[in-house]
Queue: 4 jobs
Job 1
Amino acid sequence: MGLNEAPAEITLAVDLIELLEVNQVAPELALKALRIVTADFERKLATKPSEGGS
């Protein structure tokens, strides 16, 4: 399976890895930043109104 056929999350992950590597971001710094990003998006999901009204 090529990247064109990969799920959207795989394509995005590859793009993010490439962005970090091209900009020579240290792995330790990247992981710290990704933890912040993860926490932010988890917070957004937790506060997102439920859809469907069930």
Note: The CA atoms of residues 3 and 39 lie 27 Å apart.
Job 2
Amino acid sequence: MRVVPLLAVLLLAACAQPLDAGADGPPDDGAVLAGRTFLSTAVVRDGKPYELFRGTRLRLTLDGKGHVGAAAGCNSMGGDADLSGGRLRMTGDVSMTEMGCDPKLHEQDALVSGFLQAGPRWELAGDVLTLRTDTMEVTLQDQESADPDRPLTGTRWQVDTVLDGQSAGSVPAGATAFLEFADGKVQGHTGCNNLGGTAVLAEKTIAFADIFTTKMACADDVDKLERAVLATLKGDVTWQVTADRLTLTGPDGHGLQLRAAQK
């Protein structure tokens, strides 16, 4: 008489337990996105294909700790987010750096920031992530398959943007500055002069020392580029490679963005 009710209680309790979705959790809880970076492959706005500013892609990074970061060609932005239920909800303000760029890039930054704050629905199919609102759809692919990180060493990195902490400037037309790393050394070109020196690589930093250059005179705009390159290659500099982009950032905020040169 007493055994039957006890068995019934145990069975009911077992049935009430949620199904084990595995270590990654259910497919819409955001765990499947943790620690991944995605690059845009297509943008649709108001039902029509939307062209991003030339040479740019949207980059979305999810660190697995509740933080979402994005970049749209100029400034970096991000904030805390809730990815549960197949929706990306920013749980606070979206912060953004304040570099000066082309006005079209600022418009693109604002578009992406607004899109993230609109709480887009998300869906992952293989390595393709789709984000949708009522007016905009962004398709992205996992960076590891879309555009793998280039190795820091053995790659020619060509300077295309100069960072001074508050703004981003382009390289003068016709000037080519580049860096190459190998065997604890750096060599390259400032846009005017050849350069060389010591570059000790660590996981997140490069320690530059004994940088030297040839002594050719440069036009004013190219001389400004040379000064920016040399100002970056001092002491311990933070480095980060994402796909074909290398960012070098000095402790004073000065830095360079470089792109892997085509072979």
Note: Residues 80 and 92 are 6 Å apart (CA to CA).
Job 3
Amino acid sequence: MATLTDLADDYEFLDADDRYRLLIDLGKALEPMPDALKTDATLVRGCSAAVWVYPMAGDDGTLHFLADSNAAITKGIIALVLLTVQDRTPAEISAIDIEAALAPFDLRNQLSSNRTQGIPNMIALIRATAERYAR
């Protein structure tokens, strides 16, 4: 998968339709999440679409997240969020300004408020997970 910086550089030059396609492609590239993990416990609250995020601790102390959504654009958004934190330690995740990392994508102005309303909740869940694993 491309780096967040590479994606932001490409995204800047795309028109609205191609930006949607990029997000959809990111979502399609997500590692599959088994249906058994799509439970109420892994559901992100406050999203207009269903979004599930499941953390797994690696032997090396990093966190790896599985995620999915029932909406293609939302799945792309969570893929973008995960690019900022995937396979990092809880301390690294806690130190990342995820909102700033996503700023070049200007999602609030590119997408409807329905599509972006859950982003803060996705980020909060990831931060809370990192804090829980940091203990």
Note: The mean pLDDT is 92.
Job 4
Amino acid sequence: MKRLSELEPGQKAIIHSFENDEIFLKLMEMGCVPGEEVTVEMQAPLGDPISIKVAGYQLSLRIEEAQSILVKTPN
């Protein structure tokens, strides 16, 4: 299991769970639900924020938000 923030641009993964309950609902409303495929599209030059593709659209996340999303990567 990895954190979404650990993925490199171009990598895909499946959302497994959330570590931080405070932003759980916010992320779920944005389409970040367990079982959903997510692709890291771009990362800002200093690493924050990152742009991901999830549920058919682009979403920017702060690195602290991405750290709370646990993902499974294909082997």
Note: The chain has two helices and six strands.
